[in-house]
Write a structure and sequence with these properties.
Blueprint: E1 7-9, H1 15-22, H2 30-46, H3 48-59, H4 72-81, H5 84-104, E2 109-115, E3 118-126, E4 130-133, H6 142-154, E5 160-164, H7 174-183, E6 187-190, H8 193-202, E7 213-214, H9 219-227, E8 242-247, H10 253-264, E9 271-276, H11 279-294, H12 300-308, E10 313-317, H13 321-331, E11 335-339, H14 344-347, E12 355-358, H15 364-369, E13 395-403, H16 405-422, H17 425-430, H18 433-440
Parallel strand pairs: 1-10, 4-5, 4-7, 5-6, 8-9, 8-11, 9-10, 11-12
Antiparallel strand pairs: 2-3, 3-13
Length: 441
Amino acid sequence: MSSTISYFELNKITRPERERMLRRAEDDLEGYLTKAQQIINAVRDRGDDALVDFARQFDQAQISKDQLLVTEEEFADAEKQLSSEIKASLEYAADGIRAFHIRQKPARDWLHEFRPGVMAGERITPLDSAACYVPYGKGSFPSVALMTTIPATVAKVPKIMLLTPPTSSGKVDPATLFAAQLGGAHLVVKAGGAQAVAAVAYGTQSVPRCLKFEGPGSVWVSAARRLLADRIDSRLPAGPSESIVFADRSANPELAALDLLIEAEHGPDSSAFLVTCDAEIAQVVLATLPKYLKMMDDPSRDYAATVLGGATGGVVLADNIEQAYEFINDYAPEHLQIMSTEPEQHLEHITNAAEILLGQWTPGSIANYLLGPNCVLPTAQSAMVHSPLGVHDFCKRSSIARLDKEGYRQLAKHTQRLAHYEGFSAHANAVSQLREEVIDS
């Protein structure tokens, strides 16, 4: 493990170097698309047989077709394997996540009288089905099971499926199964990667087709989402983890170094930058990171060292605070932590960040597990246009309207003029005197 930490001065780097810093693992999927398409085709054509083959090939799991779906017995066994402490923590997390998303839930229907006799509004209804994805491999993520299934449950989606790769023993991580039950999943499928996306996009003998796919995943999942965009809605890229810790002159640099490692430990394809305009803070962070790296376990230590010693991680020194804001907004991080004694002063300058954590008592690890706001966040600069996963992502809106006779007459003459101008005679006839004649006849 190298303890060398990358150091960048924004006023000295070239444009290509800056562009490389902004790049994410899923920005270039060309090397994955062809293979992902082959996996998709196999699942489309062979269904469960392909899922079993890929479980053996990619997960080293010897499972049969009748073992693809988690059984009641497996749920019961999983709960028995967990300590009362971990179950209590998952229940505590679920309570907080549920409370936040209940508060987020939009009103079911609304109507407003915009003009006399003119009523218009919206009706909110849940999607018919949703697939929630939970990664497994570099670690297990029961927290993601809660973060994906709970908003779907709050939205009242009637069919909620959870997909996750099997372990080498052909089972599912027990905490993930316990979390899936807490979150309200109706079905759990042992499938990961591109094959999981394909399974719910097309449906197989065991896996029902779904309308929506949500959850973070590898570049293989990102590639499959892109290829299957016309088969299943997949709202946002939620790829490898990325973060920026922004430290102003009032920040504790050792604390900033401690929190910089949170997202860096997810994998070698993660991204993590400390951004500051204070050279002294930058130097303290550079000196402190190797010490904290030594306190980590493998493989997290190697993952974090790889990230922080490469082109997509390390310490960034800005000339001034405006330059720091510009870099942060260009980067549009998945996670942004503002280390400052007065973090709110920076908020108005941050326009692109999926999650913004304020101050020294709000580390990203708490947000990842149980703070309440969703930890499934847009990555790869998509925070410029996308928002965190939430209840609204499992709902759809229908416009509703009603006119009385007075309201109709106000709008009809203007509609008729515009319809004639655009050349639509049926539109015009529908709001002409003919309408009232037919109604009164």
